Amino acid sequence: MLRGWSLYRLSRLLFSHCRPFYSDLQLALKPSWFIVLKSSVCLFISDLKSQALPFCTMASTEEATPALPDYVTDENAVTKDKAKWRYGRAPDYSKTRKIWAESKKSNHTAGSLPDLIEKLVKNWEVEASFKVDLADWRTVDRETYCFSVNGGPPQTGQHMLEVGTYNALIQSNEFYCPAHSTFEDSHKTFKRMMPTFAWEVLEVYSGPPVAAFRWRHWGTFKENYKGVNGKGEKVTMKAHGGTIDIEGIAVATLNDKLQIKKVDIWFDPMAMFHQMKEVLGDESVKEIVHPAAQGEASA
Q1: Rounded-to-integer distance, Cα 39 and Cα 275, Å
Q2: PANTHER family, from UniProt (predicted)?
């Protein structure tokens, strides 16, 4: 059933991607060549559909084809769950979703592969940040799920629950150190300086079962950044009101329910901190106050 759905979806994607280029090709090629090329593409797509239909028909006669899971069709699906929420109730992402709609770079067709991947990751982020019991996570295959950054060692879902998503992604540096910040502290630090941090898929290169895609994460630096660096020093970065915009690559292995079994994230973890200071310059932005006392909160 998944194979039939995948073939049919692939034929639809090929048609949608090939169609915009027809007019350009018609101008560049001789009329006879263009007709042959267009016919070949149409035949190829038709063949894919014919291969998909038997699987779809077989599935419909045996049992109803299962619908796609809501966490790949609704970006807010998991916020409707009855679960153990970190702050007693599901989070409200309405402001972040509004910023996403107003300033995103990509506009994916509903039901397209980029759209499905984007919604899957958004729901995964909600669960990783706000569901305190791994048993409540629906976007991951809990038996195999692991997470790694820039080729580093795999981290379990339980580890991410303990340290937080920011601490799982960022290594110790001159501006921030996970060892000096708890889960709660890290979220206060970054959500205070950047109240909305939108996320989108820019391109999908493959998938499933292995989905490789390029992503973008952005927001406005509204409040001063206050953290503790790898030396245990308090660091203040003055807010410049500009946009912090980072990009990266992710490779996610999915099961037949489109749940994440494994995800590898590749990005420059220093990009965010460098953009905090690029508008005003190092001297006027970065201020090391004094060594933080052991166990003192970072913000």
Answers
A1: 49
A2: PATHOGEN-RELATED PROTEIN, PATHOGENESIS-RELATED FAMILY PROTEIN
Residue 80 lies in a domain: no
End-to-end CA distance of the chain: 51
Give, as one character, the DSSP assignment of residue 114.
H
Query: The domain containing residue 47 runs over which residues?
Result: 2-62
pTM for the structure as a whole: 0.73
The token pair at 187 is: 């979220």
Report the C-alpha gap between 88 and 31 in whole angstroms. Answer: 65
- Tally the C-alpha atoms within 13 A of residue 152's C-alpha that lie toward its C-beta: 14
Alpha-helical regions (H) of the chain? 2-18, 22-28, 31-62, 94-103, 113-130, 157-163, 165-169, 183-193, 271-277, 282-285
> What order of strands is seen across the sheet that includes strand 225-228?
225-228, 233-237, 286-291
Residue 165 reports pLDDT greater than 60 = yes
* Nearest-10 crossing angle of helices 31-62, 2-18: 160
Please report, to the nearest 10 degrees, the dihedral formed by the alpha carbons of residues 277, 281, 284, 285 taken in order. Answer: 0
- Listed residues 22, 45, 62: the one ending a domain: 62
Q: Are residues 164 and 26 in the same domain?
A: no
Residues in a beta bridge with 254: 260
CATH number for position 211: 3.10.450.50
- What's the pLDDT tens digit per position in 167-217? 999 999 999 999 999 999 999 999 999 999 999 999 999 989 999 999 999
Please check whether residue 263 lies inside any domain of the structure.
yes
Let me know if residue 67 belongs to a domain.
Answer: no
